[in-house]
């Protein structure tokens, strides 16, 4: 009976993407008879099994909280809520005491939260939300710490503690600037993130030499997105769309959003090339061509492109083909090679893992999940090295269109015009909103 009760509690679903879940074996402590707050449990015949909808209504109730402590606010549901922002000098135990919890219950809550968060790092501005049953027992404790990360403990058997990522708001921004000396300076002048200078250089590598071919007077318009939490920018801003007007020619670039893997480059309104990325939303971090080697230090030919990505990020086949190699090759570490039509091969290197059950000679469609980003071989950190090799010669993966033309057509007939129209409209409306 007690088991059913706690199982019902444990089934309360946490919202958001779960980063880590850890089960905390304090359940025995919780249900052990240890004084008044727990006594009621033992006679409880009817489990608190409100249906999911009721729970949702209860959970979504707005709780306002001010400077001082508030007493528990009874709701017409099964539990009361209590919230408080941490003040200077307050420990979690002090907060829990203010919520009316006895010493044993406070220890249970502190142990649960403390299993995922170093309680010595609790500081003013963090926030504690409790959901208490009417007998005073907690069923849910949520501690909001830095950058909107929530540590959430659901008490039951077993008690589970979850680290929830912040609920970020994605904001789109646009700005325009005129190039005088360099792209970098032009971005800086218009308060556009200057890191985009690198994104532009990489995407135009092989098409336009931004260092030499810009003479001044060119116009640059940029749309980008940033994730915000209460007016703070969290993480790196990402470029969405760029219009580079040279006077005699106009270039447009649409970067892939998180879901798409395609970068479209247009010149004077006509598609110049579309580059299919082997990973979602990731940024190019190194271009094809001569560069100073990040490990060996000397200038060498970089025969592919690199994408900055997190360890474990999914790697996709950029075109349909036949798996021709899986394994380790010295500097490349763990790698996969796929053979496409017309003696074209693609290589995905430094992987941490190959997707099971991928096998040599297997035929795969474009977009097939083949492996995961890692840092095996000669590598300074997690990234994907991607090569396109045609007749045994490495070619620039972005601008050489033979790979995309070799496929089954699903990628090449993509309607770029719809996407570019939407990007232009967004640029215009965002710039208009700027005044
Ligand atoms: Zn590389």
The number of distinct β-strands equals 25
Uncertain segments? 1-76, 409-413
* DSSP helical segment count: 10
Bound molecules: zinc ion
Taken as a percent bin, the fraction of beta residues is: 35-45%
Secondary-structure class: alpha+beta
Could you please say which CATH topology of the largest domain applies here? Answer: Glucose Permease (Domain IIA)
| Number of self-contained structural domains | 2
What do the pLDDT scores average to? 79
- State the name of the first-level CATH class of the largest domain: Mainly Beta
Q: CATH-wise, what's the superfamily of the largest domain?
A: Glucose Permease (Domain IIA)
CATH architecture assignment of the largest domain = Distorted Sandwich
Largest sheet: 10 strands, antiparallel
N-to-C span:
65 Å
Give me the Rg, rounded.
28 Å
Helix content: 10-25%
Structure description:
By secondary structure, this protein is an alpha+beta fold. The chain folds into two domains: 2-164, Nuclear Transport Factor 2, Chain: A (Roll); 170-422, Glucose Permease (Domain IIA) (Distorted Sandwich). It has ten helices and 25 strands. Strands 14, 17, 18, 19, 20, 21, 22, 23, 24 and 25 form a ten-stranded antiparallel beta sheet that branches. Strands 1-7-6-5-4-3-2 form a seven-stranded antiparallel beta sheet, with helices on one face. The chain has a six-stranded antiparallel beta sheet with strand order 8-9-10-11-12-13, with helices on both faces. Strand 10 and strand 11 (250-254) form a beta hairpin. Helix 5 crosses helix 6 (103-114). The protein starts with a helix and ends with a helix. The structure holds zinc ion. The site of zinc ion has 5 residues, from loops.
């Amino acid at each position: 009976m007690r088991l059913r009760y706690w199982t019902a509690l444990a089934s309360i679903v946490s919202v958001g993407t779960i980063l880590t879940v850890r089960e905390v074996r304090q359940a025995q402590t919780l249900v052990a008879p240890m004084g008044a707050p727990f006594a009621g449990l033992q006679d409880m015949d009817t489990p608190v099994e409100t249906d999911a909808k009721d729970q949702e209504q209860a959970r979504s109730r707005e709780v306002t909280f001010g400077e001082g402590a508030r007493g528990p606010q009874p709701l017409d549901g099964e539990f009361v809520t209590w919230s408080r922002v941490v003040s200077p000098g307050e420990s979690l135990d002090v907060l829990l005491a203010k919520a009316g919890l006895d010493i044993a219950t406070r220890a249970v809550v502190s142990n649960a939260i403390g299993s995922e968060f170093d309680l010595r790092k609790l500081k003013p501005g963090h926030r504690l939300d409790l959901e208490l049953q009417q007998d005073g027992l907690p069923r849910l404790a949520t501690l909001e710490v830095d950058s909107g990360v929530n540590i959430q403990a659901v008490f039951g058997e077993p008690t589970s503690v979850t680290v929830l990522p912040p609920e970020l708001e994605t904001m789109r921004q646009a700005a325009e600037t005129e190039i005088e000396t360099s792209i970098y300076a032009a971005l800086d002048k218009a308060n556009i993130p200057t890191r985009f200078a690198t994104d532009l250089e990489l995407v135009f590598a092989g098409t336009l030499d931004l260092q030499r071919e810009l003479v001044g007077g060119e116009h640059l318009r940029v749309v980008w997105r940033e994730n915000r939490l209460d007016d703070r920018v969290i993480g790196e801003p990402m470029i969405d769309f760029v219009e580079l007007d040279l006077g005699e020619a106009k270039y447009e670039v649409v970067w892939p959003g998180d879901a798409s893997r395609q970068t479209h480059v247009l010149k004077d309104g006509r598609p110049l090339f579309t580059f299919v990325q082997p990973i979602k939303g990731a940024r190019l971090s190194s271009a094809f061509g001569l560069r100073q080697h990040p490990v060996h230090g000397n200038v060498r030919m970089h025969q592919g492109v690199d994408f900055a990505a997190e360890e474990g990020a999914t790697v996709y086949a950029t075109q349909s083909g036949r798996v021709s190699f899986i394994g380790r090759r010295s500097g490349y570490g763990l790698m996969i090679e796929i053979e496409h039509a017309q003696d074209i091969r693609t290589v995905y290197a430094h992987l941490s893992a190959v997707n099971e059950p991928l096998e040599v000679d297997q035929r795969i469609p474009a977009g097939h999940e083949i492996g995961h980003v890692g840092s095996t071989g000669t590598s300074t950190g997690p990234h994907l090295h991607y090569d396109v090799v045609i007749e045994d010669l490495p070619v620039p993966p972005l601008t050489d269109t033979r790979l995309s033309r070799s496929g089954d057509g699903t990628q090449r007939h993509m309607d770029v015009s719809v996407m570019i129209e939407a990007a232009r409209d967004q640029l215009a409306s965002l710039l208009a909103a700027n005044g």
